[in-house]
C-alpha cells in the first residue's frame, strides 16, 4: 500500500517535470522522456547527411535510390548513405529528439523558424573541410556554416539574443568532417603530393577547421560533438585497390594525424573559451576495434561491402543493379565507403556511453549533463 502510493506520487512528479520541461519548448518532441537538450544541429559529410544532397540536382554524390534505405521505415531511400539510419539519426535518438530535418528541405517552408528551433541538419555527402573537396557536388563545410549563419539570424530575430543564446548553449552541435579531404589527397596525383606533403596537407586542413570551429562558436555553439576521421584505408573501396586486400596505410595514417590535430584544436578552444565544451569521438580507434575483433561486437564480414558488385563488392557502387547481402547486421560496411546501420548504431552507443581511447575528454552523455 505504502509502496504503491509512493510510486503514484513519483509518477505524478515525473509528469509535472515533463510539463515543466515542455513549457520551455516550442517543438513537438514532448511526447516521451523529458530531455534537457532543446535541439541538435548537424554539420558534416555522408556519415550524417539525411537528405541534403537530394536537393543538389547536379551532384552525383547521392543515395536517394535503392538499395539505400532497404532497412529504413517504409524501405525508403531518403538520401542517407546507409541501409537504414545513420550517425545523425542515432545521435538524435539517444538525445531523445526526432532526427533534425535536412536544411535544404526547409529553406522554402514558411514556418521554418519554429522548425529551426528543434534542430537542423546541414550535412552533405562528399563534403570536406576544404572548399575544393568535391567542389560544386556538395555543400562544403564553409557553405554549411553560411547556411547555419542564416538560421542563427532567424533564431535571434525570433527569440532575441538573450533567449537565442540560452537555446543554443544547451543545444548539441555535431560535426563529422575531414574524411573526404583525406580521400581526395590519397587519390590525388603524385605531382599534387609533391607540391603538398602529408604534413602541409594536414596543416591546411587544421587551419581551415580551426576557423570553422571558431565561426560556429561565434554563432552561438557551446557544446560540440566532433566525430573524427575513421580508418578510411580499411573501407572496401581502398582495400579493393590493394592487391593483398589489406588497409591502405597512407589513408589510415592521415586520418590518425588529422584526428590528433582536430582534438587538439578543440582542447585549445575549451581552454581559451571557458563556456565551450566538447566530446571528441575517435572513430578511427572505435571502428578499428570492430574490424579487429568482429566476434566481440557481433560482426562477421569486415572487409567486403554488403551492397555493390565485384571484388569486395567494391568494384561497382551500391546502385540499383547491384546486389546486396541479406545479413546486413553482421557486415561492418554497407557500401564501398559507408558503414551499415548496425555499425552506425554501435559507434554512436560508444560515443554516448564510452570512454578513452574511443571518446574524450568526456562522452556525449556527460557533455549533455554539463
Ligand atoms: C570557401 O567558400 C566560402 C563560401 O562558402 C567563401 O566565403 C570562402 O572565401 C572560400 N574560401 C576559399 C579559400 O576559397
Ligand atoms: C597493402 O597492404 C599491405 C599489407 O598487406 C601494406 O603493406 C601496403 O602498404 C598496402 N598498400 C597500400 C597502397 O597501402
- Widest sheet, order of strands: 2-1-3-4-5-10
List bound small molecules. 2-acetamido-2-deoxy-beta-D-glucopyranose
What is the beta-strand fraction? 5-15%
Mean pLDDT: 91
User: Structural class, please?
Assistant: alpha/beta
Described by its quaternary structure, the protein is single chain
Write down the overall geometry.
Answer: globular
> What is Rg?
21 Å
Structure description:
The protein has a single domain, classed as SGNH hydrolase (Rossmann fold, 3-Layer(aba) Sandwich). It has helices at 2-22, 87-95, 112-117, 141-159, 161-170, 179-186, 190-195, 198-218, 236-240, 249-272, 283-292, 294-297, 341-353, 364-369, and strands at 40-44, 120-121, 172-176, 223-227, 277-281, 301-305, 307-308, 323-324, 331-333, 359-360. The chain is 44% helix and 10% strand. It is built from 14 helices and 10 strands. The protein starts with a helix and ends with a helix. The protein is globular, with a radius of gyration of 21 Å. It has 370 residues and is α/β, with parallel strands linked by helices. A 6-stranded mixed sheet has the order 2-1-3-4-5-10, with helices on both faces. It has a two-stranded parallel ribbon with strand order 6-9. Helix 2 packs across helix 13 (341-353), helix 6 (179-186) packs antiparallel against helix 10 (249-272) and helix 8 (198-218) packs parallel to helix 10 (249-272). Bound molecules: 2-acetamido-2-deoxy-beta-D-glucopyranose (2 copies). Residues 131, 142-143, 146 line the site of one 2-acetamido-2-deoxy-beta-D-glucopyranose.
